[in-house]
Design a protein that fits this description.
Largest sheet: 6 strands, mixed
Shape: globular
Strand content: 25-35%
Distance between the termini: 24 Å
Number of helices: 6
Length: about 210
């Protein structure tokens, strides 16, 4: 899998939030986007995922522009600006509902990930009762559990304790060895720089380096 961001700009009304972004992401690599809030990294991720259409330019998946087909790229999972689930059912039930869409995994796989994240004892607790960090962990499970070809995690370590952070890093490095393409973002360079093969700094809607 190769993702090419080609001369992408994005404006909302008269405000330009991305300007002429050119990046290439390839499978078997972990890429980092570093930038403060408002730098444009979340908007760029939403364009890659197909949630926004660029004002100019294109995003190609193995040479194909899905925005023209009004389709989403295949085998891509993402969390952007935090996870969102049904509040009045349990974390386990939320993951089961997601898994039913494609029927690729069993309850055993879900339970295995809940155990890895230290959530097995609260799997039947309502999502609305979860802490910020626990909600974040559930979101990360939802991205990882079906082994997608492309993984996008926006500020994945928000509210995550160090022990679970190391579990997530181990999972991402393992998926990288399976030729998965991974993009992570942070506003703290030190948080992801050691994890990533390539890092880019975003400032004011542009790639600074």
């Amino acid at each position: 899998m190769k993702i090419e961001v080609k001369n992408v700009s994005k404006s909302f009304a008269k405000k330009k939030v991305l300007e002429r972004i050119n990046l290439t992401f390839e499978n078997g690599q972990i890429y980092g986007l570093i930038g403060h809030n408002g730098s444009g990294k979340s908007v760029l991720l939403k364009i890659i995922c197909g949630f926004f259409k660029p004002t100019e330019g294109a995003v190609l998946f193995d040479g194909h522009d899905y925005s023209n087909d009004k389709e989403f790229p295949p085998s891509l999972r993402a969390i952007i600006e935090g996870p969102s689930f049904i509040p009045n059912i349990s974390g386990f039930e939320n993951l089961q509902l997601l898994a039913e869409i494609q029927n690729k995994i069993t309850d055993e796989t879900i339970l295995n990930y809940l155990e890895k994240m230290g959530m097995l004892d609260i799997k039947d607790q309502k999502y609305s009762e979860y802490s910020l960090g626990t909600k974040q962990k559930l979101g990360i499970i939802s991205v990882l559990m079906e082994n997608p070809q492309v993984i996008i995690l926006d500020e994945p370590f928000n509210g995550i304790e160090e022990k679970t952070k190391q579990v997530i890093i181990h999972e991402l490095l393992s998926l990288k060895q399976q030729n998965v393409l991974i993009i992570v973002t942070s506003h703290i360079k030190e948080e992801i720089s050691s994890l990533c093969d390539v890092t880019y700094v975003m400032e004011n809607g542009q790639v600074a380096e």
